[in-house]
Write a structure and sequence with these properties.
- The protein has 365 residues and is α+β, with helices and mostly antiparallel strands.
- Helices cover 24% and strands 21% of the residues.
- Strands 1-2-3-7-4 form a five-stranded antiparallel beta sheet, covered by helices on one side. It has a five-stranded antiparallel beta sheet with strand order 9-8-10-16-11.
Length: 365
């Protein structure tokens, strides 16, 4: 009921606050016997961590993960895995001015009304800082899925504010601060420099893909794979929209186009995004998410205080002018958590390995 745990068989409980002593998670349900070290997790945390370029928050957190339990002599034991990430660079004084006011577009207002109090330091529990434990848990899921099925995950930015980003190659993604699939990102560098000088923020669109997905993952009717993917993605801070496959573009498609034809060699297209009837087809899972502009900005905006009186809010501190810039590894992690949970659920009901698509009979003459 508290809403801090994700998953059915692979359960991840997230804890901590942005400016508390530490953040972390407890993973319950990880199969035993898998080799696991901090190094297996740290790579993805380094991709997500703040302070990596001038275009993101300059909070300097190493995000060094510690494994506290659930691993013995380098292997998972099947017991809960506790992961801890210490906060080392908080500046809580920056948030003194918003203790009794509400940032437009932020969770300040709803948290205060729901709980009767809130932690204003860095956004407290509603901060994107809490995505670090999600990335850590996702790294564990990624490792198991890769070893078990050869599943791979990748994500890129396809739009920054008004600027669409054309797809050139996945090879470019690791080599620029935007996770953009293009060789030249100067246009996006200039855009962010202008945005920061204007004391404003923007949104982004992220594409996330999983390849090597077993056939048959997903449970109708209400635990469909795509439904759980959408549920997970909407749990990511600032996400306001999720598309699977063709998504909203399918509205303008005809049935003769949208339905992915089946051939003896496989599917002809992937408008379905790798899911049919809520169950994986074995094709690549294709997901796209829309991320809203950052709520914490220096530009003054109209708001109210806790007494309902009119006021003006200016948010100081260190913030991402576009939270979508660091969202790619988080989206990968969330997709991995969903697939990990469904893989274990499939194994429990149907057996250890999802079967490949049976061959399609040849058409009769």
């Amino acid at each position: 009921m508290s809403g801090n745990t994700f998953g059915t068989l692979f359960c991840v409980t997230n804890f901590g606050e942005s400016h508390g002593p530490a953040i972390g998670c407890v993973i319950d349900g990880c199969p035993p016997g898998m080799l696991l070290s901090e190094a297996d997790i740290q790579h993805d945390l380094d991709r997500r961590r703040p302070g990596t370029s001038r275009h993101v928050t300059q909070r300097n957190e190493p995000d060094a993960v510690e494994i506290l339990s659930g691993v013995y002599e380098g292997r998972t034991t099947g017991t809960p895995i506790a992961l801890l990430i210490r906060n080392t660079d908080q500046r809580s004084k920056d948030y003194g001015d918003i203790l009794r006011t509400f940032r437009p577009g932020h969770a300040d207002y709803t948290y205060w009304h729901k709980y009767g109090l809130r932690d204003p330091r860095g956004g407290g529990r509603s901060s994107a800082r809490l995505t670090a434990p999600t990335v850590a848990a996702g790294a564990v899921a990624k490792k198991w899925l890769q070893e078990k099925y050869g599943t791979q995950f990748r994500a890129c930015m396809t739009q920054l504010g008004e600027l669409e980003i054309p797809f050139e190659s996945w090879d470019h993604v690791p080599h620029n601060p935007f996770f953009a699939p293009v060789a030249d990102v100067q246009r996006y560098e200039d855009y962010m420099d202008q945005l920061r000088k204007a004391h404003d923020s923007c949104g982004a669109r992220i594409r996330v893909q999983a390849s090597g997905v077993p056939v048959g993952l997903g449970e109708p009717l209400f635990d469909k794979l795509d439904a759980d993917i959408a549920y997970a993605m909407m749990g990511l801070n600032a996400v306001k929209g999720v598309e699977i496959g063709a998504g909203f573009a399918s509205v303008a498609q005809r049935g003769t186009t949208h339905g992915d034809s089946l051939t003896p060699e496989g599917f002809a297209n992937n408008n379905a995004g790798g899911v049919l009837g809520g169950i994986s087809t074995g094709q690549d899972l294709e997901v796209s998410i829309a991320i809203k502009p950052t709520s914490s900005i220096l530009s003054p905006r109209e708001s109210i205080d806790i007494h309902g009186q009119s006021t003006e809010v200016v948010t100081k501190g260190r913030h991402d002018p576009c939270v979508g810039i660091r969202a790619a590894p988080i989206a990968e992690a969330l997709l991995a958590l969903v697939l990990m949970d469904h893989a274990l659920r499939h194994r429990a009901q149907c057996g250890d390995v999802a079967q490949p698509v049976p061959p399609i009979p040849a058409a009769r003459p």
